[in-house]
Amino acid sequence: MSQLSPRLLYFLFCLLITNSISQVIAANTTQNFHYFCDHDNDRGDYTANSTYHTNLNTLLSTLISNTEIHYGFYNFSNGENTDKVYAIGLCRGDVQPENCRTCLNGSRTNLTELCPNRKEAIGWYEDEQCMLRYSDRNIFGLMEIGPAFYANNDRNASDLDEFNEDVNTLLRNLSRIAASGDSRVKYAADGISSGSKVIYGLVQCTPDLEESECADCLSQSIERIPIDCCKDKIGGRVVRPSCNMRFETSFKFYGDPAFVPPAPPPSTTGKSNATIIIIAVAVAVVVIVFAVLIFIYIRLTARKPRKRFETQQEELDDDDDGDDGIDASEPLQIRFNIIRDATNDFSDSNKLGQGGFGAVYRGTLPNGQEIAVKRLSANSRQGDAEFKNEVLLVAKLQHRNLVRLLGFCMEGREKLLVYEFVPNKSLDYFIFDETKRAQLDWDRRFKIIAGTARGILYLHQDSRLRIIHRDLKAGNILLDEEMNPKIADFGLARLFVVDQTHEETQRVVGTYGYMAPEYALHGQFSEKSDVFSFGVLILEIVSGQKISSIQHGEETGDLRDIAWRSWKEGRARNIVDPTLNNGSESEIMRCVHIGLLCVQDNAAARPTMASVVAMLNSHSFSLQVPVAPALYGNAMSGIFADMQIWEINSGTTRSRESTNRSDQDSINEASITDPYPR
Fold this sequence. Notes:
CATH architecture of the largest domain: Orthogonal Bundle
Structural class: alpha+beta
């Protein structure tokens, strides 16, 4: 018997593994608890027994002891200023209130033990029974899709085409139901027959999201199913901070809803027909009188009709053939008089600067929110396509490392873009100034590098859309009050379909020095074009020097050339900004290495942004040996020396002579986003 027991145990173990759910999890896991400790590594630590620590403990204790909430959603804050803590607790829609609080209490214990002294953390219990997150930043009403974890059943479905279609149909239908929920519950669960089986599905959002945000979050999760979650599997899940979804065919994994919003009160009955008629006539008279008054008011105060923002699918650039499939949202339109009042009639005292396509003004909306308003020049013949392109694209993007579009205005000849106000101007304002770049120590510079990388990764992979920016540079990286980077200027961005890898254009636009060689010379652009630009940006941030020809000691040449020669000869430390005397030597050298990988001549040899983010976040991620960068040895520097714009058209190439502009300027001359003109 003692000889058979190990075999029996081995058999049972194999049987258990075969029938278990295999998990592909982008998170730390312990005791069926998945967690992240400050996913972006930029929130920092708090000190034990500090005010923040006390506020956190008080907040979490209050949250889990609140018996007045019976719908499974808790969002509270505690403290003031930098010691203020925000927390969100969310239980699955079928979890009873008492069980919900028990689950959140367990999450509280786990998070504070597994993420000691971290200001931001998030954790989920297995089967998404509950989620708990806290942070020193305001996370309320904020749609966030990362960090996330995915899991799937290890068994494949049969009749794959029908099965996958049924899964998609079920989850899409549930998403619409959940998104339409109120501020207490955004949850839906149901089943659908598929062949001889039933597919069970569940979706949920944090109820503080708008309907469109909930729908967007769930849509992005559903779109991950055939990519990296659970393609062709009989079960799977995608769990994010703002939403989660799951489907299974092997069993019904959810119960009855724990909270059902009460139905609206029934209509009053028992009135006589005469009373009803009298009321109806009275209401009709009031409505008619009111309508007449409104008509008179409009006639007396009418202005020139406001030009509607046209959303027909059209060419957004000279060489676009297909539609972009994006609709503008009417709520984004802001009346001209509101913007005019916010900027004190575009007064000079509110003027932040003057760019090639108009002025930028600081303003304050009636609700107190500070804004930056880009007012395009009324006499400009250019910019319409870029204006529409940017509004259509940026309106769909939500990420902490992207500048946020709040609205736009098109009235008469006025074209205005309204953005969140970013107080610390752009990266080039600091990094290329002998005095100001001393304010950027290595920790801040690394935070800018890592945050920019995450923003680009979102554009390339994690957003609903797939976008190539085409004009990444220091002047288009804005810095908020905490020096967090925000990518700006989407006037040149291009939309890719899911499986598209590259595209060719008849008009090359962008900024010389940051442009990948295949794009500058042949009009071919892809995600790797943005990777190239990011590599240039890394080298500039590390060195404090512009990419253009520089004098570095006894060496003269392009920053990429000097960085490559220095790295190859084992003296890469020579290109590092001398003010970075307290930074991590290994981290700085690793960033130089990553930058050189990104600027390689062969686009296929450059890493993806997903790999770049992994390289930046983990020193255990091995780095390949880079080859010589593009344009190495200034072999092609003469090509660009006297050229400002290249247009590749019908097999011919033509150029306009330079007008002594800096090689840092965008050659399309139509960058419209940057709230701080270069």
